[in-house]
Design brief:
The protein has helices spanning about 1-10, 55-70, 105-120, 130-140, 160-165, 175-195, 205-210, 215-225, 230-235, 265-270, 300-315, and strands spanning about 20-25, 30-35, 45, 70-75, 85, 85-90, 125-130, 150-155, 250-255, 275-280, 290, 295-300. By secondary structure, it is α/β, with parallel strands linked by helices.
Length: about 325
């Protein structure tokens, strides 16, 4: 119920955006949605989850919490995920024969460097949810010496992609998967239609038959992005394999009842994490839910922004 609550009742327009088209080195573009605020204030960079966008309710909630604290914000729309502000049901296609995936960190690296170069003296923080959390943690592990992002937070991260995919093959999990696969299949078909050179790599017949993430990833995600198959994609992209290298102060929030991940993975992630990572789990919260108190409040969003704010005002220590 906590997993489904937000998307059912929360507004997708909690903040006002200023959109920027950022040209990428490979001739594509990333659409960034900025929330303006006091000049010189810290900036929170937010990464959405699978098939999300800057208009996902949890992205809006994180940016709204940052704005209440006097910060500015930026939401990254992964390739093929940006929404038309006039019609949120319409996703905007990208210009290159690729999509996005759980281990794709080059676009995040490009955005971080661009934002940091514009304001090198201003604190930049980052937060990712679900797939966005996996991307963020993987990038932090790949770049242990980076100093552009002062601190980070990840919410409901699927640390082990293979374990998460198996977990979602259960009876209840199939309900979530079916919803995601509807748009993922459409994107795979669109890429092949617009870029015929991808037809030899993407098996559209298997895409059409896919009923699990593993089946779809083996037929489309993996071959489209240079992996040998779903198993290779999961192994090379799972953030649990990068946690030991993270040197940036990072908060990781997860719920034990997250329907997207078996609870056993949380203890494995805690054991794998470096001393820079604070891993906090709750009994309840679902997947990016964390509904609490009257109103209601969304505990994870307040926790993330509050944790980052305290670290900015006094240096992180003792993680």
């Amino acid at each position: 119920m906590q997993t489904a609550w937000g998307s059912a009742v929360r507004s997708r327009r909690q903040v006002v955006f200023v959109r920027e088209r950022l040209e990428t080195p490979d001739g594509d573009e990333l659409l960034l949605d900025h929330v303006e605020g006091p000049a010189g204030s810290p900036r929170l960079l937010v990464l959405h989850g699978l098939e999300g966008s800057s208009y996902s309710v949890y992205v809006q909630g994180l940016l709204a919490a940052a704005a209440r604290g006097g910060w500015r914000g930026t939401a990254v729309n992964f390739r093929s995920c940006a929404r038309d502000p006039a019609r949120l049901s319409r996703m905007l296609p990208n210009r290159r024969p690729r999509l996005y995936h759980s281990g794709e960190t080059s676009d995040l690296d490009f955005v971080v460097r661009a934002l940091s170069a514009r304001e090198p003296q201003i604190p930049l923080f980052a937060a990712g949810a679900s797939l966005g959390g996996n991307v963020l943690l993987k990038w932090l592990g790949e770049c242990p010496s980076q100093r552009m992002v002062s601190a980070a937070a990840a919410v409901s991260t699927p640390y082990d992609l293979a374990a998460g995919a198996r977990h979602l093959e259960t009876r209840v999990g199939c309900l979530y998967v079916a919803s995601f696969l509807k748009t993922l299949r459409a994107k795979a078909n669109d890429v092949v239609a617009r870029f015929p050179e991808t037809a030899a790599r993407v098996d559209l017949e298997r895409v059409a038959r896919s009923r699990t993430f593993r089946e779809f990833d083996d037929a489309a995600t993996a071959p489209l992005h240079g992996f040998a198959g779903a198993d290779d994609y999961y192994e090379r992209s799972s953030s649990i394999n990068f946690l030991s290298a993270v040197r940036t102060p990072t908060l990781c929030l997860s719920a034990e009842d997250d329907p997207f991940l078996p609870e056993s993975v949380l203890s494995r992630a805690g054991a794998a994490a470096s001393a820079a990572v604070t891993l906090q789990t709750t009994r309840r919260g679902g997947h990016i839910g964390f509904v609490a108190g009257a109103g209601p409040r969304y505990w994870a969003e307040d926790r993330v922004v509050g944790w980052l704010a305290r670290g900015w005002r006094q240096p992180f220590a003792g993680h």
